[in-house]
Write a structure and sequence with these properties.
With about 375 residues, this protein is α/β, with parallel strands linked by helices. The chain folds into two domains: about 210 residues, Thiolase/Chalcone synthase (Peroxisomal Thiolase, Chain A, domain 1, 3-Layer(aba) Sandwich); about 150 residues, 3-Layer(aba) Sandwich (Peroxisomal Thiolase, Chain A, domain 1). It is built from ten helices and 15 strands. The strands form three sheets. Strands 5-4-6-8-1-9-15-14-10-11 form a ten-stranded mixed beta sheet, sandwiched between helices. Helix 5 packs across helix 10. It is globular and about 55 Å long.
């Protein structure tokens, strides 16, 4: 009996446009100007809800008011909705939104601040619908709310919908804000550092939290200065409700699957944008996973000391800035890192590194044993 082998060749999918809003600025460029100087968006907060005298990344009132003034009928929108609308406004082309244009929204908490007023107002589907309707999306928003992997997972899902011809193009928005609910929750886990966080460092004590909005446009069309999505994967090792696997099992399998789809070997990766929360367990788990795949020599950084952990926004925010680092051929230092504090070695970048970056690995891990990774290739335009 004759057997035939079939090779399925998927269409190329590109990330074409991006924007971010953080305490450091309202665009990729304004953030980049501060990052290369080593300036952090994290500052000391004297009092917020139930907590006092801690560090976090917070968008200040003046910055927010300037954004709010640009949103039509802004009185109908919450603070977080305004951040999302303001971010998307910079990359969206409303005239080309049609029934084949998707909208994927990543958040972990949405309008959780509204919960004390109304269960309906805290609804994430309502939150997503209000933003979608502002821009005239004709399809229902797709919501991704899977702990701290949500931002990367949202991009992976957008890619898959395009590959299946469900959509022709997709806008992905990832956002979360600083709230008393989140702060007290992380504090109850004893996972917060009340000084500035130090990812991968021997003196790390935990996370600083933050807020941000980040968005991208994903399609089969290749614009200028784009990145191709070569591979992605998400695997849950179900290790613990809040603690990561001690062996990095889910992250290892996720990276292996993404490399397989990308048709790359681990040594081809030029730069790893790590989750790097500065908790004892996360940073240890990540370095173990990288070592198991013989990726310990690849330049690696965490951007958490620049922005804090922005939860559902973090994966996409840091992916966009990984793309910017590749465009500039500069790998940013892992801020506040001085001496490695994990049981295995890892090439954590201590000072800004001038280096050609063509292939990026971005990793995210979160509660419940969730892991999501993505591999990008820089497309060189003629």
């Amino acid at each position: 009996m004759e057997t035939k082998s079939w090779v399925v060749v998927m269409d190329k999918i590109y990330i074409n446009r991006a924007n971010i809003i953080t305490p450091l600025g309202n665009s990729v460029e304004s953030n980049w100007e501060q990052l290369v100087l080593g300036n952090s968006g994290i500052s000391k907060i004297n009092s917020f809800g139930h907590l006092k005298n801690f560090y976090a990344g917070q968008i200040n009132d003046t910055q927010f008011r300037n954004l709010k003034e640009q949103v039509i009928d802004n009185k109908y929108y919450t603070r977080l909705e305004i951040l999302g609308i303001s971010s998307l406004f910079q990359i969206i082309d409303q005239s080309k939104i049609n029934l084949k244009t998707g909208f994927v929204l990543s958040t972990t908490k949405g309008n959780i601040n509204e919960l004390s007023n109304s269960l309906e107002k805290a609804s994430i589907p309502l939150f997503a619908k209000k933003i979608a309707d502002y821009f005239g999306f004709k399809t229902e928003p797709i919501i991704v709310s899977n702990a701290c992997v949500s931002g990367v997972l949202a991009v992976n899902i957008a890619k898959r919908f395009i590959e299946m011809d469900f959509f022709e193009d997709v806008y992905v928005l990832a956002l979360d804000e600083l709230t008393d609910f989140v702060l007290t929750g992380f504090n109850s886990f004893q996972a917060m550092d009340f000084e500035q966080c130090k990812p991968f460092d021997k003196d790390r004590k935990g996370v600083n939290l933050g807020e941000a909005a980040a968005c991208i446009y994903v399609s089969k069309k290749e614009e200028s200065n784009v990145f191709q999505i070569l591979g992605e994967a998400t695997i849950n090792d179900a290790n613990h409700i809040s603690g990561p696997s001690r062996t990095g099992e889910g992250l290892v399998l996720s990276i292996e699957n993404a490399l397989k789809e990308a048709h790359l070997t681990a040594d081809k990766i030029d730069y790893i944008s790590a989750h790097g929360t500065a908790t004892m367990y996360n940073d240890e788990m990540e370095t173990i996973a990288f070592n198991r795949l013989e990726m310990q020599d690849i330049p690696t950084n965490s951007l958490k000391a620049f922005f804090g952990h922005t939860l559902g926004a973090s994966g996409l925010l840091e992916l966009i800035l990984a793309m910017k680092q590749a465009q500039e051929n500069v790998v940013l230092k892992s801020l506040n890192f001085n001496e490695l504090g994990t049981s295995v070695v890892q090439n954590i970048v201590k000072e800004n590194l001038n280096k050609a970056v063509n292939y990026i690995l971005r990793t995210s891990s979160g509660f419940g044993g969730s892991n999501a990774v993505i591999i990008l290739k820089k497309v060189k335009n003629d």
